[in-house]
Amino acid sequence: MAHLLIAEDDELLRDALAALLEQSGHSVACAANGAIARELLESTRFDGVILDLGLPLVDGMEVLRWIRQRLLALPVLILTARDGIDDRVQGLNAGADDYLTKPFIMAELQARLQSMLRRSRLPAFGGSLEIGSGSASRLRVDPTMPRAWLDDEALELTQREWALLQLLVANAGQVVSREDVLNAWQAEPAEGAVGSNALEVYVHRLRRKLGDSGLSIRNVRGLGYMLESGTP
């Protein structure tokens, strides 16, 4: 799940995008012009932005430059009718993470958005992800390869177990939906067919491997899973 901002002046498209993303489990805020978009960005923490370039009051390109000056790590997907090569280059050079031209297929937008959000959760250049404090053991995941350590002891993990674990660690304390996990698995080498109960099986395996570390994977009914650490 992610908290997303849609900055789009076409009301029908804006409402359709918001409904689609909310059905996928995300929370959504909307802005009909660039001025409202900047106000929302100043007052609210977002996980990603879908940004139309042709916004009234404040142009989308100006909003993008503002984001890159103040919110360097915030992922931005440009959504625009400007389909020229120069427009694409200008948008990407200004700091957009992805660029999709209108008209577009909703399924492609969802896939691009999910990929952008997944990339934004990982630290750059091989940094490690860590969780654990107080009574909990320290769990460290290397996002560049299927390796993880509980304190200083390496965990034996399959490719899918590692993909699930690193997604939970990257979003520790937040709900990770079943769809997020399945999308992450699709990006990894296959380990065979995935049955309907496969995700529960992998969660059960990870729980056993975390043992009495003080780290737990909580099942959030109807939403997904959450990794929690022990209380200091």
What can you see in these coordinates?
By secondary structure, this protein is of the alpha/beta class. Helix content is 40%, strand content 21%. The protein is built from 8 helices and 12 strands. The chain has helices at 11-23, 34-43, 60-70, 85-93, 106-121, 159-170, 178-186, 198-210, and strands at 3-7, 27-31, 48-51, 76-80, 98-101, 129-131, 139-142, 147-150, 153-154, 176-177, 216-220, 224-228. The strands form 3 sheets. The chain has a 5-stranded parallel β-sheet with strand order 2-1-3-4-5, sandwiched between helices. Strands 6-7-8-9 form a 4-stranded antiparallel β-sheet, with helices on one face. It has a 3-stranded antiparallel β-sheet with strand order 10-12-11. α3 (60-70) links the parallel β3 and β4 (76-80). α2 (34-43) packs parallel to α3 (60-70), α6 packs across α7 and α6 (159-170) crosses α8. It is elongated, with a radius of gyration of 19 Å. The chain starts with a strand and ends with a strand.
| End-to-end Cα distance | 27 Å
Task: Please state the CA-atom Rg, rounded to the nearest Å.
Answer: 19 Å
Unreliable runs: 122-128
Q: Summarize the main sheet.
A: 5 strands, parallel
The structural class is alpha/beta
Number of strands: 12
Q: Biggest sheet, strands in spatial order?
A: 2-1-3-4-5
Helix and strand sequence: EHEHEHEHEHEEEEHEHHEE
Helix content: 40-55%
What percent of residues are in strands?
A: 15-25%
Mean pLDDT, to the nearest integer, reads: 81
Q: Which overall shape is indicated by the principal axes computed on the Cα atoms?
A: elongated
Helix tally equals 8
